Amino acid sequence: MRRIMKPAAGLAAALAVLCQMAELQAADAVKIGVLTDMSSVYSDFGGQGSVVAAELAIEDAGGKVLGQPVGLVSADHQNKADIGVTAALKWFDDEGVQALFDVSNSGISLALQDVIMKRDKIAVFSGANNKSLTGDRCTTNGLIWGYDGYALAKGNVEGIFKSNPGSSWFFLTVDYASGHGLEGDTISVIEKMGGSVKGTVRFPLGTTDFSSFLLQAQASGADVVALVAGGADVRNMIKQADEFGIAQAGQRIAPLFFTVNDIQGLGLEATKGMPVVADFYWDQTDGTRAFAERFKARHGKVPTDVQATVYSSVLHYLKAVEAAGTTGTQAVLAKMKAMPVNDFMTDGATIRADGRLMRDMYYFEVKSPAESTYPLDYLAQKTTIPGAEAYRPAAESDCPLLKP
């Protein structure tokens, strides 16, 4: 009997070792998720393009980290917090996802701040601009990789005031957390710089008829009509504002969040002179042009700033996992925060304690048809806003992580 048991015991020991090795390999396998709007008003500047951006980042990391292939999943949150949170929990609890990216919706991002702390996971937000993300709802595990409301507000107002100092403003604002926050930040900057606000109106996400709101803006006589929305909403507003002749009558149309895809859809004649504040434009440098060419070959369009920051954040995360030698959340976060961010659009930027990546921002204006000399030649860069100046000062933040 003893002779039979020895091989059995050896087999059991071998199986135990194999199981342990499998567990270690599973623990070190990297899996990330892109949670974005695939089907609604913001799908054009995030959506499937954000998935493509993540794929390119994985390719540039070599396709493997810690010797394991990098897994990628994606989901459409439909701009609904319950759907977004449910998808994230399924990824974290059932599918082994360690980090999620994009989100592009402030309400969902704020809800996820609680989820990632409870599950000890990582979220890197692009396209969510509510000040609470790096303010009173900041977390150690949530990072903000792209623009935020303060940066958009400061960049737009300071840029416009160079040609319209002391101007008066009227706001058309989407009625949810992101819109309210961006409106408030912008009004604060306007008032600090000696301007005034003649009124505000709010509309539901996905509105198609803006005529009554635009007529109020026109009647206000404000120098600047600020459009606090994105995606299909802002494009519809600009189309209808053009039909009303608002810009032709002397009021300046200022979409506070505007992308190359929006300009392409509307045309230069309808958008010429409009401000654009962004952390990326495809035609800035040889590096941005090379990335845009790769991205366009895969996706059919040049990348938006949201999509570019998804690439940047995924690549930095994968570098941090490799440097940490583990997928463990706290070890990876420590490396992400210790390592400067370097890629085609980022030069040595660092992450502040509130999760804010202190990258440069840029103020552009849309070219006229006569100024545009080749396809997709849409923007003229006017100003670089250094990262140290672009975002809300730490002393003004409500984030407990920035307190002494």
From TrEMBL:
The cross-references to InterPro entries, in alphabetical order and at most eight, read:
BCAA_transport (IPR051010), Leu-bd (IPR028081), Peripla_BP_I (IPR028082)
Identify the keywords attached in UniProt to this record, alphabetized: Amino-acid transport, Plasmid, Signal, Transport
Q: Which SUPFAM superfamilies match?
A: Periplasmic binding protein-like I
What residue stretch is flagged as signal peptide?
Answer: 1-26
Chain ranges of the Leucine-binding protein domain: 30-367
Q: What GO terms describe the biological role, i.e. biological process, of this protein?
A: amino acid transport
Superkingdom of this protein's organism? Bacteria
**Family under the similarity heading:** Belongs to the leucine-binding protein family.
Tell me the protein's name: Branched-chain amino acid ABC superfamily ATP binding cassette transporter, binding protein
